[in-house]
Amino acid sequence: MRLELRGLTKKFGSFTADDNIDLTVEPGQIHAVLGENGAGKSTLMNMLYGILEPTSGEILIDGEPLTFSGPSDAIAAGIGMVHQHFKLVGPFSVADNVQLGREHTRGGGVLSAKAAREAVLDVSERYGLRLDPDAICEDLPVGVQQRVEIVKALSGPETELLILDEPTAVLTPAEITELLEIMRSLAASGTSILFISHKLKEVQAVADTITVIRRGKVVAELEPTASETEMASAMVGRAVTLTIDKTPAEPGEPRLEIEGLTVVNGAGVKVLDGLDLTVHSGEIVGLAGVEGNGQTELARTILGLLKPDAGQIIIDGVNVRSHTPSRRIADGLGYIPEDRGRDGVIAEFSVAENLVLNQYKDMPYAGGGVVRADAIRQRALGSIAEFDIRTQSPNELVSSLSGGNAQKVIIAREFSRPRHLLVAAQPTRGVDVGATEFIHQRLVTERDTGTGVLLISSELDEIYAMADRIAVIYNGRIVGEVAPDTPREVIGRLMVGASMEDAEHADPDEVEVTGPEAEETPAAEAAETSAPEADDTPTTDSGTSESDSNDEQSNGGDR
């Protein structure tokens, strides 16, 4: 399939999300569309997939202009799409999710479970995507859920073009590596791919050509051999510093002291097992580890969302184990959550409301039992300007923002109030290079003004660049604390369970593990297609069509 976009434009009132976009994707090509959060990437893809109607311009497939009134038209034309925010029905099986909108039936219109399973297994085998058709989607790791979305997109009638909208935003390094291999395999088999991203290394790794969009306009056409600096500058429209300039830390008194922290989950497993950790004022402690070793539980326990079974959490000399999350926040704890959708924002609230979620009862935002809307609006206008939140107004719902701009709302909220300790879990996940630069600079400023910062990141490069001291977590314990100039192979050994002594004195000729990307992930284990053949029994009819199964707002997800 040869896809051509000519002058494609989308306006929402006076706001132009995409402005006269020209773009061509050749058969079997991986064409990357690069841009910062809010550049118009997702809006462009939503027009191509029939979710949004262009204000003007043309979509041509193999030279023929086509008009899509909905996703079903795009699917019929051979276009599949994997959205930035997955559109799976959690309690449904993989097979049920894949057949939504294209249900397999037998005599009398009864849904056929056997046909649905066979369709999943057929696509899985054809493209090398391991899936159990009977697995329940909400029980699968994120990386496998994305694989379900890809199989669903490829299950359309002769899918020849696959749109991947920010596909790596929520994946672990190992899952990202696997996805890039899947993309190469699909392209080699003749499938064209539109790869929407703002991650420079990933674009360099797989793209055949790159189109850069900034504020709704095409500003550059680049080869994948272009430098990261060149791509970043084209995205942001200015020179971007990809290295972090900071002076040596000057640690002071302890801000956070964790002693013997133990948390047992509902299955009786110790997700934190006697963990000890201290963060001082004026330092950034980076927590390194393969995801799933207790990082999430540690952050949530510090905030008070999880109750420890043993141990102490001391903030500024006070044992806060019995304190509520709201009290901890009021006492100076800042928190950037790993999962912004669950813990960071309320999607149905406005940008302005989300910016004061943890201060809405306080002056000047409330008084005499009355919320002061003018004060909240003024706060929002200031934060929108300072943190470059791409939104039409403070009253716009957060659900209509791109993922990166939703992250900026959280960053703005947490950096705009007094705090002594900041727990930042994956703070740059899903944000563009310009926003990453800004967040890193703000974290260093926090440190330099006396805040203690605990940085939890799955990106080892980010840990090395930001941390003044690195703590390595494995199976719910801190197994070593090292300086940021420690060789990567030492940290890699600690991350997979080596003792400090063994990590420092291992045989230099052995195969090294240098980061999370080297670890076998739950995704790989959960994806085996070992389920037995199911009987041809009816499945549940969801009543949901493909054109209905989207939660995009009318003004697009990535303006």
Separate helix tally: 19
In the CATH hierarchy, what is the class of the largest domain? Alpha Beta
The appropriate CATH architecture of the largest domain is 3-Layer(aba) Sandwich
Structural class: alpha/beta
Task: Work out the radius of gyration.
Answer: 24 Å
Can you tell me the CATH superfamily of the largest domain? P-loop containing nucleotide triphosphate hydrolases
Count the E strands.
Answer: 24
Q: Which bin fits the share of residues in helices?
A: 25-40%
- Tally of structural domains: 3
Give the N-to-C terminal Cα separation. 27 Å
- Average residue-wise pLDDT: 84
The CATH topology of the largest domain is what? Rossmann fold
Biased composition (Low complexity): 523-532
Organism: Glycomyces buryatensis
GO molecular function: ATP binding; ATP hydrolysis activity
Keywords: ATP-binding, Nucleotide-binding
Give an overview in words.
- The protein folds into three domains: 3-236, P-loop containing nucleotide triphosphate hydrolases (Rossmann fold); 247-332 and 418-504, Rossmann fold (3-Layer(aba) Sandwich), CATH 3.40.50; 345-417, no CATH class.
- It is 31% helix and 23% strand.
- It contains 19 helices and 24 strands.
- It has a six-stranded mixed beta sheet with strand order 6-9-10-3-11-12, with helices on both faces. Strands 18-21-22-15-23-24 form a six-stranded mixed beta sheet, with helices on both faces. Strands 2-1-4-5 form a four-stranded antiparallel beta sheet, covered by helices on one side.
- The chain is globular and about 70 Å long.
